[in-house]
Amino acid sequence: MNTDIFGKAIKDFYNKEYTEDIIVQANDFDDDHIPIPYLFRAYAEMPEIEQKALKLSYGKVLDVGCGAGSHSLFLQNDQKLDVKAIDISEGAIEVCKKRGVHHAMAQDIYDHNNATYDTILLLMNGSGIVGTLDHIDRFFSHIKTLIAPGGQILMDSSDISYLFQDEDGGFWVDASAGYYGEMKYKLKYKKQESEWFDWLYIDYNTLQNAANANGLLSELIVEGENNDYLARFTLA
User: I need a labelling partner for 30 at 20 to 30 A (CA). Which of 45, 82, 116, 117 fits?
Assistant: First the structure.
């Protein structure tokens, strides 16, 4: 078993050993693929939601789940901002540093303490790291301790209710199975595979209610073409 699938794939691409993409498996759904070059995209290649989030960023920035560092590099080099990049993938952080990210660390967000930021970024379905809906209060309770006065959290997510609609517009989910946006995934790459892990997609109303319950004001910044959106949170 290898849980640092992203790290292995990112290092392979950086070292010009790219031959295949990451396979994403989920129960009851067809396999999906994550093209590794996409993780190295430039600003012009990013979707509108990510571009908007980067343009709204200011001050001292924490890039959570930074991956190969594409967002951090744009903020650092083009926007001239002070950026700290963190990711649980040691391989990804190794490549971030090689690509020129000045401050990068392999760390879980819940282990990040004793610092505050003007902008906290959680992009590429940033809500995913929450895992399941019953962890949302823990997430907001911690993340708001990292916000500097006048600071903001920028997070994107998607409402995947459309996956459970029939042709007549009916909504079919097992109510006893929990929130419909809770997914379980497994990653495969070059004969290696990860453990199953939780990943949360969350509709904006549910996210807004959770944020408000934890003392944060919520704002819907922009909606994408695929039921995705960018939200901003500030201290109430």
Answer: 45
Q: What are phi and psi of 6, to 5 degrees?
A: -60, -40
pLDDT tens, per residue, the chain with 236 residues: 457 999 999 999 999 999 999 999 998 889 999 999 999 999 999 999 999 999 999 999 999 999 999 999 999 999 999 999 999 999 999 999 999 999 999 999 999 999 999 999 999 999 999 999 999 999 999 999 999 999 999 999 999 987 766 666 665 666 666 899 999 999 999 999 999 999 999 999 999 999 999 999 999 999 998 899 999 999 98
Assigned token pair, 186:
């497994």
By three-state DSSP, how is residue 106 classified?
Answer: strand
Q: pTM higher than 0.85 for the full model?
A: yes
DSSP characters over 5-63: HHHHHHHHHHTT----PEEEEETTS--EEE-GGGGG--GGGS-HHHHHHHHH--SEEEE
Other CB atoms within a 10 A radius of the CB of residue 145 amount to 12
Homologous superfamily of domain range 5-235: Vaccinia Virus protein VP39 (3.40.50.150)
Which ranges of 26-130 would DSSP assign to H, the alpha helix? 48-56, 70-73, 90-99
CB-facing half-sphere around the CA of 76: CA atoms within 13 A: 19
> Which residue has tokens 């505050």?
116
Report yes or no: 192 and 186 within 8 Å, Cβ to Cβ.
no
